[in-house]
Specification:
The complex is a heterotrimer.
Chain A lengths: L15 H15 L1 H23 L30 H37 L1 H16 L2 H12 L3 H28 L2 H9 L3 H37 L10 H10 L2 H4 L6 H25 L14 E2 L9
Helix pairs in contact in A: 1-11, 2-3, 2-11, 3-4, 3-6, 3-8, 3-9, 4-6, 5-6, 6-8, 7-8, 8-9, 8-11, 9-11
Chain B lengths: L3 E13 L4 H5 L6 E13 L3 E5 L6 H8 L6 E6 L2 E2 L5 H8 L2 E4 L13 H11 L6 H14 L6 H4 L8 H13 L5 E5 L7 H16 L3 E6 L2 H7 L2 E6 L2 E7 H6 L4 H9 L49 E2 L9 E2 L5
Helix pairs in contact in B: 4-5, 4-7, 5-7
Chain C lengths: L3 E13 L5 E13 L3 E5 L6 H9 L6 E9 L2 E2 L5 H4 L7 E4 L13 H11 L5 H14 L16 H12 L6 E5 L7 H18 L2 E6 L2 H7 L2 E6 L2 E7 H6 L4 H8 L48 E4 L2 E3 L6 H6 L1
Parallel strand pairs in C: 3-8, 3-9, 6-7, 7-8
Antiparallel strand pairs in C: 1-2, 1-4, 4-5, 9-10, 10-12, 11-12
Helix pairs in contact in C: 3-4, 4-5
The chains are: A mainly alpha, B alpha/beta, C alpha/beta.
């Protein structure tokens, strides 16, 4: 007995991933803020990657007197050591962004693992892991970072680890919630009834459903990580040999730039941090909205139907 | 006489109800949901048994217990082997013998798996079919068996590209590919359009005719009567009536079955019959009535019914010895 | 002969689709309902039955375009769009939605949720409203004291009754019900159908019951319309639809229902309904019809009157076809 494959009305063909990408693209397209955010982010990443090639001056070059004005030394003037602010911004971008991305990676990996284990296995495991998560959540981030950085010593990797160890909690919660809900889906129960082991179920059935949400969460985590790095660098806890935006601000305030009226040493790095964080937030939130099906509005919500003129009855 | 494949004896499934902290401190007794309270039945090769009942009667829990997906007491024998206490290690090969298809065709397939992957997965899990080609061949073969021909048309499709009936067939294929001996079908067509149901049920019937034993869970007496060999009517964790399908439906003996049959809507508006509409709803399985569990709602209950708990026995007015009911008056 | 309470003329509903296309969900539906009548609207998924009754309530989103007339007590309430529909919504025509039993506010008592529409539409306020809420509950078979309870303390069947009570809060003339018993056990379903029968008899309430379950309509309704691909393909008295169907879809739909007492084989209908985002040429059922002939894929059949209030849209009923073929 053969069955005719008929397309149901309105069913699109194509792989699940392709449909997902198309859906995300459709949502992002409708939100100019997300496009702008993505563009800004891309710009900063490109600058950071190609800094050695496109920075007008080297990292430690002195091209003029301390606090040279933007008028005399365009476009952004000189810092307290006579270095070109624009170049420093580009070099600084490398560190700021790299630490941000790396710390997020650490956070996502820890948070993702904790979330999956807690959500999938439930019971005592879940309780224990969630209490640990709560413990980390309750700790105020910055003071702890200060203490740990002070104890461990200032090195870039220490900073990455410290930030990562404090950011994983929100990821863990989101992942756990998603895993718990996916675990109850009929196809997961079916896989278990088939005899699939836990590893197979987690990797082939659960994780693919979690991944999109994780991506959105990662972008938002990056924003926080960059902020944390800036704060730590400003407090002098970062690697002294590396320059980042936070370090630039620290150098500026430490050398009395404010009383010297040298706003160009403080404002540009601050603006860069703010822009990157804003860009990440715009993109991250757009992604979250795109990936969260519950946010689609129910058909009964609005009553704004349009009245159309009577159709002429066709002669049938 | 068909060869008996599945024997279930005195199956009991109870879920503990979580106590709050206050109740635990006050040492209140733990309450239990008596989902299944002593169910026994057997199923032979090439036979379809329908477990029929309303929500809360324990039919789904019974099926899950047979699949060892919930903790249960009692005996479950598959092909003579007792599988009720077998450990998880030994369970995996046994899972090949018993497969399940679910009610919701839209949820029972992973949306990210193509049809090909969904039907191949069981083979991979159980290490069947040495090479990819062998597995692919098995998959294509099974798709043909369930009526999805030509298989090439369906192999690369995703579930959302298929209709409800087709998805259900894919789910059946994924269950069949392991060549199980027993298939549990949990409300296999209740979420499908009416015009599509008969096709899927006929498929199940064909599979049954080729030797597969099918345990069908359903609330729809009409479907059960048409496609099942035997029907067991469940109420509050017990089987209250059991027998050949047509016999149960045309000559119900237990008052609950009679009431159910009287209220099932009939398509012919001219066929009017006296409907026995029971008051209230099925009581909570936490507080099971004393004596006969049905007596609070039973139209013919007497005082004795609140004391004695009747067991399944051959009915007086049934047309065969195999027509059993659990009522003092049958 | 009862007076006409609600008439629908040539109702069309289109939905805008993302890529600029339109889905023609309802294609020229006519209805004619009398006071106290129980009318069934039956069809499978995607046929447009839910959209039709949502249109009667004016509860369609901004992506929907509606044309036609909805005549309630002689007035075309669709003529002014939302403006003219709003005054009648819930007061003259109310609805029990699909899954209504799960749509209660969990943090409000059931009584409070019954009082809300009364106060909102100015039907009753304060203590009078509370008393009216109690009476409503009694009318649907729930003890009035239970108004103080929360929805989670009600069983599924009771919540469905409460949903019906909520729909009746402003004493409407017409009650629309979208699959109200689909998720319920057969015994509870019988109770609800019984309740609806009683309400329509005692209150003179006109009932439009939408479902895919034909036997339920046969139990409850005196007349019904079968919908397919957005249009009504046959309408008439229940006995006529069962014993003398004049549209192949009606016949095949009845043939797909298992009847436990009979030995008749249960049939399925091969294929699937047509896409509604494209114009349909000819009869929409032709590809799946077992008696289609040359005229069918070419010319769309009109709804012909075959007897007193019996209509069907099939070329086999047209004397022209039978003469020619």
């Amino acid at each position: 007995m053969s069955t005719v494959l008929e397309h149901e009305p309105g069913v699109e063909t194509g792989s699940s991933t392709r449909r997902l990408r198309a859906a995300i693209w459709a949502i992002l397209k409708d939100r100019p803020s997300a496009i702008v955010g993505a563009a800004v982010l891309a710009l900063f990443v490109l600058v950071a990657v190609f800094a050695p090639l496109i920075a007008p001056h080297g990292l430690h070059e002195r091209i003029g007197p301390p606090f040279g004005t933007p008028g005399a030394y365009p476009p952004l003037g000189l810092d307290d050591g006579g270095g070109d602010i624009l170049s420093l911004l580009m070099w600084g971008a490398r560190i700021s962004l790299m630490v941000g991305f790396a710390a997020s990676l650490v956070a996502i990996m820890i948070g993702g693992t904790v979330g999956v284990i807690a959500g999938y296995f439930g019971g005592v495991t879940d309780t224990v892991l969630m209490r640990i998560t709560d413990y980390f959540l309750a700790i105020p981030d910055v003071p702890l970072m200060i203490v740990v950085a002070a104890i461990w010593g200032p090195s870039l990797w220490h900073i990455v680890l410290v930030i990562g160890l404090l950011l994983w909690t929100s990821t863990a919660r989101i992942v756990r919630a998603q895993v718990k809900s996916v675990r109850e889906r009929v196809y997961v129960k079916r896989a278990r009834a088939l005899g699939a082991g836990n590893a197979r179920i987690i990797f082939r059935h659960v994780l693919p459903q979690v991944a999109p949400l994780l991506v959105a969460n990662t972008v938002l985590t990056i924003a926080v990580a960059i902020f944390d790095e800036t704060a730590l660098a400003f407090l002098g806890l970062s690697d002294p040999s590396k320059i980042s935006w936070g370090k630039m601000i620290k150098n500026a305030t430490g050398s009395a730039a404010v009383s010297a009226g040298a706003w160009w040493t403080i404002v540009p790095p601050g603006v860069c941090v703010a822009l990157v964080i804003l860009a990440c937030t715009l993109v991250g939130q757009a992604l979250e909205d795109a990936l969260n099906p519950r946010l689609r509005v129910a058909h009964l919500a609005a009553r704004g139907f349009r009245l159309l003129p009577r159709m002429l009855r066709d002669d049938k | 006489m068909t060869e008996t494949l599945l024997e279930v004896e005195d199956l009991i499934v109870r879920y503990p109800v979580h106590r709050g902290l206050m109740a635990a401190l006050r040492r209140r007794a733990r309450q239990e949901i008596h989902a299944v309270e002593g169910v026994s039945f057997s199923l032979g090769r090439g036979e379809m048994l329908a477990l029929v009942g309303e929500s809360g009667c324990g039919k789904t829990t019974t099926a899950q217990a047979v699949l060892r997906l919930v903790q249960a007491q009692g005996q479950i024998r598959l092909g003579g082997q007792d599988i009720s206490t077998v450990g998880h290690r030994e369970l995996r090969p046994l899972r090949r013998q018993v497969q399940i298809i679910y009610q919701d065709p839209y949820e029972s397939l992973d949306p990210r798996f193509r049809v090909r992957d969904a039907v191949e997965e069981p083979l991979i899990i159980h290490n069947i079919g040495g090479s990819k080609e062998e597995r692919r061949a098995l998959v294509a073969n099974t798709l043909e068996r369930v009526g999805l021909t030509p298989p090439d048309l369906f192999l690369d499709r995703y579930p959302h590209e298929l209709s409800g009936g087709q998805r259900q067939r894919v789910a059946i294929a994924a269950a069949l590919v392991l060549e199980p001996q027993l298939l549990v079908a949990d409300e296999p067509v209740s979420m499908l359009d009416v015009s599509v149901r008969a096709g899927v049920l006929s498929l199940l019937d064909e599979l049954r005719a080729s030797g597969l034993a099918i345990l069908m869970i359903t609330h729809d007496l009409s479907t059960a009567a048409h496609f099942a060999d035997r029907i067991a009517v469940m109420y509050l964790g017990r089987i209250v009536e059991e027998g050949p399908a047509r016999e149960i439906v045309q000559n119900p003996q237990h008052p609950y079955t009679k009431a159910l049959m009287s209220v099932v809507p009939k398509a012919d508006p001219l066929k009017r019959r006296r409907r026995v509409i029971l008051q209230g709803e099925t009581p909570n399985p936490i507080n099971v009535p004393t004596g006969c569990r049905f007596h609070p709602r039973c139209p013919i209950a007497v005082d004795r019914c609140s004391v004695e708990d009747p067991q399944l026995h051959p009915t007086v007015e049934g047309k065969t010895q195999e027509h059993l009911a659990a009522c003092l008056f049958t | 002969m009862s007076e006409q309470v609600l008439a629908v003329e040539d109702l069309h509903v289109w939905f805008d689709l993302p890529k600029g296309e339109r889905l023609h969900a309802v294609q020229g539906v006519d209805l004619d309902l009398e006071a106290g009548e129980r009318f069934g609207l039956v069809g499978e998924s995607g046929c447009g039955k839910t959209t039709t009754i949502l249109a009667l309530m004016g509860l369609l989103p901004s992506s929907a375009g509606v044309s036609g007339s909805i005549i309630l007590d002689g007035e075309d309430i669709l003529a002014g769009g939302e403006r003219s529909m709003r005054p009648h919504r819930w007061k003259d025509i109310a609805m029990v939605f699909q899954g209504a039993m799960n749509a209660f506010n969990p943090v409000q008592t059931v009584g409070a949720q019954l009082v809300e529409p009364m106060e909102f539409h100015g039907v009753a306020t304060g203590d009078a409203a509370k008393r009216a809420a109690g009476e409503l509950l009694e009318m649907v078979g729930i003890a009035p004291e239970r108004a103080e309870r929360y929805p989670h303390e009600f069983s599924g069947g009771m919540r469905q009754r409460a949903a019906i009570a909520m729909a009746l809060a402003c004493s409407p003339k017409v009650l629309l019900a979208d699959e109200p018993t689909t998720a319920l056990d057969v015994m509870v379903q019988a109770q609800i159908l019984d309740l609806l029968t009683r309400l329509s008899d005692e209150l003179g309430l006109t009932l439009v019951f939408v479902t895919h379950d034909l036997p339920v309509i046969a139990e409850l309704c005196s007349r019904a319309a079968v919908m397919y691909a957005g249009e009504i393909v046959e309408a008439g008295a229940m006995e006529t639809l069962y014993h003398d169907p004049r549209h192949p879809y009606t016949r095949m739909l009845f043939g797909a229902i298992p009847d436990p007492e009979g030995e008749r084989e249960v049939l399925s209908i091969p294929g699937a309904p047509p896409r509604l985002d494209r114009e349909i040429v000819g009869c929409p059922f032709a590809p799946r019809c077992d008696v289609a002939f040359e005229r069918c894929p070419v010319e769309r059949p009109a709804l012909l009157e075959l007897g007193p209030r019996h209509y069907a849209a099939c070329h086999h009923n047209d004397p022209v076809s039978t003469v020619a073929s």
